[in-house]
Amino acid sequence: MAVKRSDGRKWDELRPMEAKVGVIPRADGSALFKIGNTHAIAAVYGPRELHPKFLQNPEKGILRVNYNMLSFSGVGERVRPGPNRRSREISLVAEKALLPVLNLNDFPNAVVDVFIELLQTDAGTRCAGITAASLALADAGLMMKDLITAVSVGFVDDQLLLDINADEDCGGATDIPIAIMPRTKELTLLQMDGLVKKEQLKEALKVATEACAKIYEVQKKALKEKYAVK
């Protein structure tokens, strides 16, 4: 029997999406990405000289990602301000998900800083943040092999659900955040909170890849709208 979703979507249906680049005038690159009630904004600063100097890499630039949920962004209890274990973990995850598309060889001793802020959350926050950050990096004009697109899938009572929301997440869904390079379909992120069978994971990857192709179109549309010749 199919699981009835709290927001009325079909099991393989994405929430409504919106993307926009160039939303922070003083940043080198920036983007807003909304998927349902999860809203992420990302800002890029750099490449710029890295200080203190002992952190510099003389062979290539480095990427630093900072992920943060605003205090009243979440569903339920107020988020405690400032860094915590979860935000540090997601910052590192996002950094590793974004690095494969970047070429920082031309920027020795430099750093590219990416700041991801979650303005409003309803699950899928790391995926929305990574998607926004990818757009912001492209908006900053950095050399990239591709964009990075991310989505979360989950299982409730063995039923696969695409783009899980907070009700499903809190209800015990097995959460599987996935990020890919859409053109080559290479994975840059695969996490899993729970246990699934091998065939279930294969199905989840297939559905997520198809969903990422739709998100990719939203990303490309946002970039084209900013740089369209008027």
Main attributes of the structure:
single chain, 230 residues, alpha+beta, Ribosomal Protein S5, domain 2, five-stranded mixed β-sheet, globular
Mind sketching the topology for me?
Blueprint: E1 17-21, E2 29-35, E3 38-49, E4 62-69, H1 85-98, E5 110-120, H2 125-139, E6 149-156, E7 159-162, H3 166-170, E8 174-181, E9 186-190, H4 198-227
Parallel strand pairs: 4-5
Antiparallel strand pairs: 1-2, 2-3, 3-5, 6-7, 6-8, 8-9
Helix pairs in contact: 1-2
Summed up:
The chain has 230 residues and is of the alpha+beta class. Helices cover 28% and strands 30% of the residues.
3D architecture notes:
There is one protein chain. This protein is of the alpha+beta class. Helix content is 28%, strand content 30%. The protein has a single domain, classed as Ribosomal Protein S5, domain 2, CATH 3.30.230. The protein has four helices and nine strands, in the order ββββαβαββαββα. The strands form two sheets. The chain has a five-stranded mixed sheet with strand order 1-2-3-5-4. Strands 7-6-8-9 form a four-stranded antiparallel sheet, sandwiched between helices. Strand 8 (174-181) and strand 9 form a beta hairpin. Helix 1 crosses helix 2. The radius of gyration is 18 Å and the shape is globular.
